[in-house]
Model the fold of this input.
Amino acid sequence: MDAHELTQLLENVRQGRVAPDEAARTIKTVPYADAGGFAKVDLHRKIRCGSPEVVFGQGKTADQIEGILRVMVQHGEGGLATRVDPTTAEHLQQAFPEGEHNALGRTFRLRPPGRPAPALGKVVIVTAGTSDLPVAEEARVTAEAWNCAVSLVADVGVAGLHRLLHQLDALGGADAIVVVAGMEGALPSVVGGLVDCPVIAVPTSIGYGASFGGLAALLGMLNSCASNVTVVNIDAGFNGGHVAGLIARRAGQARLNAANSSAEKGT
Done:
């Protein structure tokens, strides 16, 4: 049940088409659904937070992920699973032939039923190096799942800063930018000093020993002197894409509302 379906249910109660006790039973039973005894799928997440529950695939069996996704599909939702290994992805592709597996980003996505809604908001994903692409792809798939237009600018780290300067047009007009970097994690600060939108920094575990599995990049990003930079966890491409998607979608919805209001005034 999404916000529209809940509103329709309440409208049916108001008009007498649905009895209040029946509506109450419906609302009581949809907060979550049991998936085989191993998971309780949160079906109210989209109403509360604007996006459905996402399946963190690491540590789950292929059958468990399939079961969770089937519950979501049965309730009219799409589904997104992250940290999906190749064997699990093969299983899911057989179970859901319409699904989209991103091998680099380790994601598996089922689009929601019906015609896709127009994209709201613009997100740009930027990587310092090619080695950061798996985390960046996870962020890209997530932001796209949240109905944003997403573009990728890859391999423009500070070791060759001229490469970034040649991509400034690609950063223009973004509602939010996700910057994915390992090593010393300097790139988000540079990008933050060039743009007028929020920058979500994602440190990666790429680097030699003293990078401490991404801790050096994390600390560098937390100490950024660019005031528009905020930071998520190490290798957390999903979190970066999710936050950027929320920001961009709201900005895009505001522009759409303003355009519709202007059009109404014009008539």
Residues 237-266 form the longest helix (30 residues). The two ends are 35 Å apart (CA to CA).
